[in-house]
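Progress narrative, Year 2. Work on D-methionine transport system permease protein MetI from uncultured Desulfovibrio sp advanced from sequence curation to structure prediction during this period.
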Amino acid sequence: MVDYPMEVVWAKILLPALVASGKMLLFGSLLGGFFGFLLAVSLFVTGQNGLRPNPRTYQVLSALVSSIRSFPFVVLIVAIIPVTRFVTSSSIGWVSALLPLTVASTPFFGRMFENSLKEVNPALIEAAHSFGASNFQIIFRVVVPATLPSLISASVLGVIHMLGLSTIAGTMGAGGVGASALIYGYQSFNDTVMYLLVFIMFVIVMGIQAIGDRLYKSAS
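Result:
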């Protein structure tokens, strides 16, 4: 067992790990949420009861979502290493992890957002059509406001999902909490470091959920 002084644990292990994980969580959630929302709108519009139904396009997009979600994240990271190196000139570090994090989280966000958008009352869409609203106006002035609480809940689940993905990415060279728990905790037989990181992750998840619950109540 490697026993580190607590000041070393905080200054050299925990703080750098939390900063790296925080960056992956923030930027990964923003990228995954953005592309996921675009994907969700495309699925919603081209779906069977969408604004512009297109079964072929919907089936292709839906199959793409399902195929990416079926990949274990570790396998996905390894599979796209050549692309990651081409885009970021490296395959390690939190910046390089953003590509696989975005690829893995976009289908998750997309499917969650699609399910939220489908909750809109069809009568609202029909009323908007009768007033001559365009599809763009219907989506952003009718559908999104009407389903905002559900979209917030989906976003919270997506961010928590991203936190788990970023931890896995850490064990594959991205750094952060996952790498620290593996190297300084498990491999060093230091239960203090490992369980302290687990506790911090628990607190982060609870904090994200609490913020999400408050936003949900405000939007309801």
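The longest helix spans residues 6-46. The chain has one domain: 6-219.
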